């Protein structure tokens, strides 16, 4: 069995890990291998320094240091390949996990849409829309009928213009002739004398001519 098979298969009868769990395990392995990379790179630098120091003094020790450096480099190369494989597998799992979530959401939305349309019939919808359009048309006709003035007849605009011109000409003629509108009728002159006038008459002496005339009239009436 391969390394990844041993890593994710588990014991027989155990439930398979979910995509999220598998992704997390791959990330843990990546972190572990990255730390080992850092360790090997440091070991390679140390062996290289040892080979330089012993190059002229101790040739045997220098060669052994270079051999260890080669082994570390080989291990580092293997880890690089393993990390590349793990990264590819993790990215594939992440994409698959994302696609699964998207498909599940789309399926849920599709089921909800089917449930919403379950009691709907396309013919009934068309009939309903036709009824709505018909009722709107009736409502518009009623509104137009109500908004029209009842018993109002159109007026001849030309006739009104002629009447207005006649009125203006009449006013102009009056201004030219100096004719003004007659004032209101004055009140009638009172028929009875004012009290002051009556007093003045009483104060005036009676003339003889007036007395003779009165006496003559009285005597003629007595006869």
From TrEMBL:
Residues 1-23, 154-223 are annotated as: Disordered. Residues 194-217 have a biased composition (Basic and acidic residues). Keywords: Coiled coil, Endosome. This is Glucose derepression and pre-vacuolar endosome sorting protein. The keyword rRNA-binding does not apply. Residues 69-96 form a coiled coil. InterPro entries: Snf7_fam.
